[in-house]
Specification:
By secondary structure, the protein is an alpha/beta fold. It is 40% helix and 20% strand. The chain is globular, with a radius of gyration of 23 Å. The chain binds nicotinamide-adenine-dinucleotide (NAD). Nicotinamide-adenine-dinucleotide (NAD) binds next to helix 8 and helix 9.
């Protein structure tokens, strides 16, 4: 549980208008334009961020390229990069409350979760890749005796990073940390509704000893600032987390520009499958509720489709509804809130649109469904559950990215697999059963990058997060993510 005293010291702190961070210093946009930042807690203006365009992206990419070519970071010995990244992890920990509260004021995640998932996870990620970087070796190929085939892994150049608003520090770090660890320079474009904690991270990186230009942040709207970064001819890799629609565009931008590599981490419509022989149906009900409603459902891996065996469907649904009714939705800076605010009024309206469409399609609302606490000015929504959902309804197919759970019955293992795989997505899944053989059969058959067995969520930095099908083409986390940011180079040496 977060400390209320530490939160209270920070909750109303004034936030200065925020410039971009380019070449080691803050700067406004050249035309002076800004975007207003509103807090989802109460709908009030928090501050402004600089409204960047192609000009600011050019400056940031030029700074990143200069830094890369000069080699102050890219040519530093791995043990040197390790020291800086570990120092950054320590600084993130020392500023954990500042970063968490700033992020919550910006994006609305409940503070208990934010503290762990944002600075907590970001510090762990920088430490993990910092520790890893001096343990990566090259290879010598098994050639004939008159030749040596050396295979080296080196940095690639300038990495563009574009991230969403749901966990900006955690998701940003999953890309920035391995990209920097490998010796690349980074230009980051955060989401316009969640830029503040990432700007502060970039300042801490300078304090940790990262050379100017190795990590730049340009803020602004996706369609302008993000597009300029994705179309830039001097960006070598684009690492993206966000929606499938924008992911598609990034692939087009790559084709229209320099064929930069594009790594996409996209959405999900993850099935959480409950068999009658789950080791504990109580634990399954609690985890299913947490697995969809934390951060107001704004979690890429959220278990938004609850598939329940017909024999236990009604009883299990009653348990899930009872657990849901225990949740308190409220000010995300109140430690008693289990669920904070939806990130923006647009997202809240989108969620309510899905509620209306589900009712129209014949699903039965059995909990929530409404905006609440509107007198606060903030964007809050009740955790919402629908039953009588068929697998072809819009709410069973499309990612809502809100606190909305569909409950779908199934007859047997085969039908569970068929329903689980019947969307365009393949990000995460949950399987609850005490039958080890069944669990392994399901792991093989369910098309998801991450499969939880008798739990939901909670994976750590040691394992990859990858999407199958239209949930993406890359992976964040683990040593596999480090490989994405390195180039293989062969030296073929004739030794006679
Ligand atoms: P989004 O796709 O609307 O925006 C993501 C980022 O892209 C933002 O920074 C935005 O400004 C930028 N952007 C928008 N238009 C752009 C353009 N034309 N060119 C370049 N950049 C552009 O997504 P969102 O609403 O911020 O985030 C929610 C989505 O992210 C959901 O689909 C969710 O599932 C997904 N997500 C995936 C993961 C994962 O690991 N797979 C994790 C978290 C969130």
């Amino acid at each position: 549980m977060a400390s209320s005293a530490q939160i209270d010291e920070l909750r109303n702190a004034e936030i200065e208008p925020q410039g971009h961070l380019i070449d080691g210093g803050r700067q406004p946009s050249r035309d002076g334009s800004v975007l207003k930042v509103f807090s989802p807690r109460d709908g009030k203006q928090l501050t402004t961020i600089a409204n960047g365009g192609a000009g600011e992206i050019d400056l940031a990419v030029a700074s990143a390229r200069k830094s890369f070519n000069e080699g102050s970071w890219s040519q530093m010995a791995p043990v040197g990069r390790k020291k800086v990244l570990i120092r950054l992890a320590e600084l993130i920990e020392a500023h954990a409350y500042e970063l968490a509260v700033l992020g919550v004021r910006d994006n609305g995640t409940e503070i208990n979760m934010a503290l762990k998932a944002e600075p907590g996870s970001a510090a762990g990620t920088f430490r993990y890749y910092g520790e890893a970087v001096d343990k990566v070796y090259g290879e010598i190929a098994p050639t004939t005796n008159n030749v040596i085939g050396l295979i080296e892994r080196g940095p690639i150049g300038v990495v563009g990073v574009i991230v969403p608003w749901n966990f900006p520090l955690m998701i940003g770090s999953w890309k920035i940390a391995p990209a920097l660890a490998a010796g690349n320079s980074v230009v980051l474009k955060p989401a316009e509704t969640a830029s503040l904690s990432l700007l502060r991270l970039a300042e801490l990186a300078l304090e940790a000893g990262l050379p100017a230009g190795a990590f730049n942040v340009v803020t602004g709207p996706g369609a302008i600032t993000g597009e300029a970064l994705a179309l830039h001819n001097d960006v070598d890799i684009l690492a993206f987390t966000g929606s499938g629609g924008i992911g598609r565009r990034l692939l087009e931008y790559s084709a229209q520009s320099n064929l930069k590599q594009v790594f996409l981490e996209l959405g999900g419509k993850s099935p959480n499958i409950i068999f009658p022989d789950a080791p504990s149906l109580e634990k399954a009900a609690k985890a299913s509720v947490n697995g969809i409603f934390r951060n107001s459902g704004q979690v890429c891996i959220s278990g938004s489709r609850l598939l329940v065996h017909r024999d236990i469907h009604d009883d299990f649904l009653a348990m899930v509804v009872a657990e849901t009714e225990k949740l308190t939705v409220g000010d995300p800076l109140d430690t008693a809130s289990d669920i904070g605010a939806v990130n923006s009024i647009q997202q809240l309206e989108k969620n309510l649109g899905y509620v209306a469409s589900a009712i129209k399609e014949g699903a039965t609302l059995c909990a929530g469904g409404e905006r609440i606490l509107s007198q606060s000015g903030g964007y809050y929504m009740q955790p919402t559950i629908f039953r009588n959902v068929s697998a072809d309804m819009q709410i069973a197919q499309e990612e809502v990215f809100g606190p909305l759970l569909c409950v779908i019955p199934f007859e047997d293992e085969e039908e569970a697999v068929r329903i689980a795989n019947a969307t365009d997505y393949g990000l995460a899944a949950g399987i609850w059963t005490a039958d080890l053989a069944r669990a392994h059969r399901m792991i093989k058959k369910v098309q998801s990058g991450v499969i939880h067995v008798n739990c939901y969520g909670g994976t750590d930095i040691t394992v990859p997060l990858s999407g199958m099908k239209q949930s993406g083409n890359g992976h964040d986390k683990s040593l596999h993510a480090l490989e994405k940011y390195t180039a293989l180079k062969t030296a073929w040496i004739d030794i006679g």
